[in-house]
Amino acid sequence: MRQHVLILDFGSQFTQLIARRTRELGVYSEIKPCSVKPDSIDLREVKALVLSGGPACVSGEDAPPFDPQWLQLGLPTLGVCYGMQLMAHCLGGKVSPGTSREFGHAPLHISEPSGILNGFQAGEKISVWMSHGDFVSQLPPGFRLLATSSGEISAAMGNPEKRMYAVQFHPEVVHTPRGKEILSNFLFGVARLSRDWTGEDVIQSTIDYVGRTVGPEQNVICALSGGVDSTVAAVLINKAIGQRLHCIFVDNGLLRKNEAQQVFKRLKELGLNVKLVDASAQFLKELSGVSDPEKKRKIIGRVFIDVFDQEAHRIPNVTHLVQGTLYPDVIESVSVRGPSATIKSHHNVGGLPERMKLKLIEPFRELFKDEVRRIGRDLKMPEEILGRQPFPGPGLAVRVLGEITEERLRILREADAIFLEEIRAEGWYEKLWQSFAVILPVKSVGVMGDGRTYDQTIGLRAVHSEDGMTADWAYLPQDLLRRTSNRIINEVKGVSRVVLDISSKPPSTIEWE
After folding, report:
1. What pLDDT score does 343 carry?
2. Of 462, 464, 465, nearest to 484 (Cα)?
3. Where are the domains of the chain?
4. Catalytic site includes residue 170
5. Residue 99: helix, strand or coil by DSSP?
6. Which residue out of 4, 102, 132, 172 is catalytically annotated?
7. What is the pLDDT of residue 351?
8. What's residue 451's pLDDT?
9. How far is it, in rounded angstroms, from Cα 433 to Cα 108?
10. Beta sheet of 245-251, edge-to-edge order
């Protein structure tokens, strides 16, 4: 039985960061909907509780569902932002609307350096990241004020006897420089947990699980994309059952320049039993004339299942399917708060198992990408693979904005290859979460030589991120951008303009579609 921290999600965009920071400190954590009931959870495994932030007001009609029984279980509890207001509201305190809102950097004045603020100094002022309108105007009985923000607003409170603490700011974000120290105080000082979450544990538990669930005469299949997640998953399962893992790499005609053969060669070098299937003509035929991004994703998912199913039936006695599903895939695809707007359909959650009646093996379903990379390093995999930037499941289909044609794919492949070549040459590839080109459904007038042109527009996108949930656009050197733009316009026939995307996530997404 594995101890863990349970995080109840009230809709904050930073909830996953709480889980990441907790795991980085060596303690496993799980995110559940805020509406979950205590009697639906195996509480023997839950050693601490975190209430996340959220956009609602605790007394508003849109307040998300929450069972106050959670606060009566005696669990060490940390409330973050909305979580602080909720604790006050449920435990006899008072929450009031602020006369002014606090968003962004704010000073935190330490009044009592104890509990989660152990190691700080009384009277010390530190920088934290605020995001709230309401505030706790009256502390619940038994709670002490630990810190205030501007205007003497309650910003941290604690009840050491009940091991319950709360902060109005976000310790999980990098904009709160000492936030990890505060989380560490909660995990190890207040909750008295131990550091027992490592990549080696995941490797051994996966090998043991596969050994127990896959019979000696059974085969397992894996849909390989060449990306970090599916490749590390395949290497890990291969470690458990060897050549009984059959990997299928489908070339959907939407890969980057020379990518299919390069990836196939790399997978063979890893010792994987892999087959390359060229289904590019089938995918492009189905996508002909389609411009809507969500329709593109649905078509690609459907055709992929058809192709994969056909290939899988050539292999005898297949009982299990391996997928490189990550925790963010699960969270974004199925809202932890219940029905909500779908931002994008994820390509690797659902579909194949139902169609093929196979049992799923998803060794990374509870992990973030950086954790998968650490597991890959533990497996002694080459850094060339582990450092590969994320590539969308639908491939270039969501980077060709508008209709997909062979000509537009050619233009994008050439432009993207130039951009990545310049990024690598300047030593920027490893510094970025993603860097890529898109082709826009916009033509513009240009002048080449003495003639007028009316050609395609290429957009360049480069972002910094830790997990893809949030991202900031990267300040690339002017010389790099100048060379890239000149080369694309001069070397790629059909391009007359290059533009730079300087939007962050949120409100934009990293990919354009």
Report:
1. 35
2. 462
3. 4-190, 199-386, 405-500
4. yes
5. strand
6. 172
7. 52
8. 64
9. 31
10. 274-278, 245-251, 219-224, 318-322, 359-361
Helix (H) or strand (E) holding 300: helix 293-312
Note the helical H segments in 123-258: 179-184, 199-213, 228-241
Query: Which CATH fold topology does 199-386 show?
Result: Rossmann fold (3.40.50)
CA distances from 309 to 222, 250, 283, 287 (A): 11, 11, 15, 20
| CATH fold of 4-190 | Rossmann fold (3.40.50)
Find the DSSP H helices in 248-292. 259-269, 280-287
Angle in degrees, 0-180, between the axes of helices 478-491 and 406-425, rounded to the nearest 10: 150
pLDDT at position 342: 34
Six token digits for residue 160: 């050491």
Q: Which residues of 310-326 are buried (b: 16+ CB within 10 A; e: fewer)?
A: ebbeeeeebebbbbbbb
Bridging pattern class, strands 245-251 and 219-224: parallel
Q: What is the pTM of this model?
A: 0.71
Active-site residue, selected from the candidate residues 81, 90, 222, 247:
81
Instruction: Look at the chain and count its residues.
Output: 513
246 closest CA partner among 276, 226, 266: 276
pLDDT at residue 332, as a whole number: 56
Q: What gap in Å lies between CA 406 and CA 413, rounded to an integer?
A: 10
CATH topology of domain 405-500: GMP Synthetase; Chain A, domain 3 (3.30.300)
What is the per-residue pLDDT for 152? 74
For the stretch 353-393, pLDDT in tens is: 566 678 888 888 878 888 899 899 999 999 988 988 988 88
Residue 366's nearest CA partner among 51, 38, 34, 5 is: 5
Sign, CA dihedral 114-108-194-365, equals positive
- What pLDDT, on a 0 to 100 scale, did the predictor assign at position 241? 93
Of the listed 89, 170, 320, 347, which one is catalytic? 170
* pLDDT under 70: residue ranges of the chain: 1-2, 98-103, 132, 151, 329-356, 447-452
199-386 with 405-500: one CATH topology? no
**Which residues fall within 8 angstroms of residue 246, CB to CB, at 6 or more apart?**
219, 220, 221, 222, 273, 275, 312, 315, 318
Residues 51/207, Cβ–Cβ less than 8 Å? no
